[in-house]
Specification:
alpha/beta; about 25% strand; three-stranded mixed beta sheet; single chain; 12 strands; 6 helices; globular; seven-stranded mixed beta sheet
C-alpha cells in the first residue's frame, strides 16, 4: 500500500531534468502541492544531482534536444541506471525518452532511456497547429470523478505495448475519446472504436513498475492532482521499501 502523504516522518526529494523544456512549470506545480511531507526540488543538470533524488520528472520539450544535452552533460548512462531503482515520470517529450522504441525520429535517430515497454510515435497527433485540449477521465487521481484538463502540444502517440514476460505489468490509467481529437490528426480515425482495449493509440497515461508516462502536459494546467498522484503512487512506496540507515 502507498504511504500516506500526510506522514511527516521524512522529506521527499523530486528531481526535475532541467536541460530544456517545461521544467520550470513542473517546479512551480510541485511548490504548490499542499502536503505534510516537505517536497524538496532538485533541478537536475549534472550526474551528481541525481544522487540527491528519490524520483525524477522529465518534462515536455524537444526530446531529441533533451537527449543530446543529457549526453553532453554526461547524464544519459546515470539516467539509465537511475530508472532501474527509482521512479521517473515522463511528460510528452519525457514520455518519448522513456519508451523502448520511437517512430518519426529526426534524421540521425533518437537516443532513449528505455524504461517502459512501449513504442511511441513522435508528433503522432500532428504538428503545433494540431495541438489541442481535452477533458480526461483518469483512474486513481484525487477526486477522480472530476475530469483532468489535458493539454496536448505536438503530442506523441503510444503505438504499441511491448512487455516481455519478465517486465512489470502495464496499467492504463487514461484514454482519450476519439471524438475529442483534432480533425487534422491521422493517428486514430474518428470512427475508430476507442473502447477497444487492444488498441494502444488512445492511451494518454500509463504506469509500468516504478514509472509514469503521460503524452500530455499536466504541468501547464493549474491542477496539481497528477503531481500528487506521482508522489503518492510511484514515489512513496519506494521510500517505504528503502532500507533504514544503520
Amino acid at each position: 500500500m502507498p504511504q500516506s502523504l500526510s506522514a511527516p516522518d521524512c522529506n521527499v526529494t523530486i528531481g526535475i531534468l532541467a536541460l530544456q523544456g517545461a521544467f520550470a512549470e513542473h517546479q512551480v506545480m510541485l511548490q504548490k502541492l499542499s502536503l505534510k511531507r516537505k517536497v524538496v526540488i532538485v533541478l537536475v543538470r549534472q550526474p551528481e544531482d541525481l544522487d540527491k533524488c528519490d524520483a525524477l520528472i522529465i518534462p515536455g520539450g524537444e526530446s531529441t534536444t533533451i537527449a543530446l544535452l543529457a549526453r553532453l552533460a554526461g547524464l544519459l548512462e546515470p539516467l539509465r541506471e537511475f530508472l532501474k531503482t527509482k521512479p521517473i515520470w515522463g511528460t510528452c517529450a519525457g514520455a518519448i525518452l522513456l519508451a523502448r522504441a520511437v517512430e518519426g525520429a529526426k534524421r540521425g535517430g533518437q537516443e532513449l532511456l528505455g524504461g517502459m515497454s512501449v513504442s511511441i510515435e513522435r508528433n503522432g497527433f500532428g504538428s503545433q497547429v494540431e495541438s489541442f485540449e481535452a477533458a480526461l477521465e483518469v483512474e486513481g487521481l484525487r477526486e477522480s470523478n472530476r475530469a483532468f484538463h489535458g493539454i496536448f502540444i505536438r503530442a506523441p502517440v503510444v503505438i504499441s505495448l511491448d512487455p516481455t514476460p519478465t517486465d512489470p505489468p502495464i496499467q492504463i490509467i487514461s484514454r482519450i475519446s476519439t471524438s475529442l481529437l483534432p480533425d487534422g490528426q491521422t493517428a486514430v480515425p474518428h470512427d475508430e472504436d476507442d473502447t477497444d482495449p487492444r488498441d494502444p493509440r488512445t492511451i494518454v497515461a500509463l504506469r509500468q513498475g516504478l514509472h509514469l508516462l503521460t503524452t500530455f502536459h499536466p504541468e501547464l494546467t493549474k491542477d496539481d492532482r497528477f503531481h500528487e498522484y506521482f508522489i503518492r503512487e510511484c514515489v512513496l512506496p519506494t521510500l517505504s521499501r528503502a532500507p533504514s540507515p544503520a
